[in-house]
């Protein structure tokens, strides 16, 4: 009987030890995930706040000359430890001069041409003989870019169609790019009632409406807060060239749970109404150079940039022209994910402004890029709406739109 009791006690103690170890490991990795890999600190502003127990922090590297976003800056490192002794994470803090931008909030029409002809799918075609063929089966994939036909560079789908017709029944050589790798394939077009067909569905441009986030003093712009992906493949579109156009809000389709709303706008595709040249399409948004026409639409007011460690839960504002005029709408910042791997989901926000709720039901498509403002600083931009709750959405930290590395 005594042996059984001792064995039982050992079992309980062992179970307790394993449970405590498991909780410790869970807490270790939870705390590690909460600490960002890097901070940006405005010169003269306080650095990252002291962590709560069981994490301790110590500056482990002297301030050194470095660079950030093409500006002269200084950096130092903070070493975080768990329970005061176990290494947790090394975080680099970059100190920069105060940065100011002109906040946007106005709608912009977006027109973008792809760098090559994008394949969105393949399918079957019916030949003149009545039989079904699939010439591109297993040779071409959705997401491929067709760069050339028979050695000739192409940029538009009309050029692809014309080249295939000219080749007729002879084999066609397509120059493809897939996941950064270039190669060639040979295939034969099918003679159909409509001409020679490869059974490849393609796209060479896209257009839509978004919101301007900011202008810089040198005339550069940032918009959307997320990249432009192809609607069929879901992949980030490779940009050849693109433009922003003057746009006005025509109608608002309210968001409802399960059904995202949207801004219906009137885009004026005229040379005189070009607002900017799009030069980059990245995960953090679209970027380029603004025209004088765009700069004239914004006030001269500038706002200081606020970095992620300055953001707090609570009241903030989003700037939008969803009503037809630019104004600020009240929101609540509910969560701040400083170490979120998805660059577009650093902030979770909820719309609380009665007017915006009555007008749009919350956040709607087309509001992506609306600046997020807190304590008089621009701290981020709206990126996505929660499908099942249009009053809530995600936002990107503004530093990820300003930092070239954040736009990769």
List the helices and strands and how they pair.
Elements: H1 2-34, E1 38-42, E2 55-59, E3 64-68, E4 71-82, E5 86-96, E6 100-103, E7 107-122, E8 125-126, E9 132-133, E10 145-149, E11 152-153, H2 157-167, E12 172-178, E13 181-187, E14 190-192, E15 195-197, E16 200-215, E17 220-223, E18 239-253, E19 262-267, E20 274-282, E21 285-290, H3 292-295, E22 303-305, E23 314-320, E24 327-336, E25 347-351, H4 354-360, E26 371-374, E27 377-386, E28 389-397, H5 398-402
Parallel strand pairs: 1-5, 22-27
Antiparallel strand pairs: 2-4, 3-4, 4-5, 6-16, 6-22, 7-10, 7-16, 7-18, 8-9, 10-11, 10-12, 12-13, 14-15, 16-17, 17-21, 18-19, 18-20, 20-21, 23-24, 23-26, 24-25, 25-28, 26-27, 27-28
Overview of this protein structure:
The protein has 408 residues and is mainly beta. The chain has three domains: 33-98, no CATH class; 101-111 and 205-407, Thrombin, subunit H, CATH 2.40.10; 124-198, Pdz3 Domain (Roll). The chain contains five helices and 28 strands. It has helices spanning 2-34, 157-167, 292-295, 354-360, 398-402; strands at residues 38-42, 55-59, 64-68, 71-82, 86-96, 100-103, 107-122, 125-126, 132-133, 145-149, 152-153, 172-178, 181-187, 190-192, 195-197, 200-215, 220-223, 239-253, 262-267, 274-282, 285-290, 303-305, 314-320, 327-336, 347-351, 371-374, 377-386, 389-397. The strands form four sheets. The chain has a 19-stranded mixed beta sheet that branches. Strands 1, 2, 3, 4 and 5 form a five-stranded mixed beta sheet that branches. A two-stranded antiparallel ribbon has the order 8-9. Strand 16 and strand 17 (220-223) form a beta hairpin. The longest helix has 33 residues, at 2-34. The N and C termini lie far apart (68 Å). Mean pLDDT is 87; it is low at 65-72 and 404-408. This is SpoIVB peptidase. Residues 179-408 form the Peptidase S55 domain. Keywords: Hydrolase. Its EC number is 3.4.21.116. One of its GO terms (molecular function) is hydrolase activity.
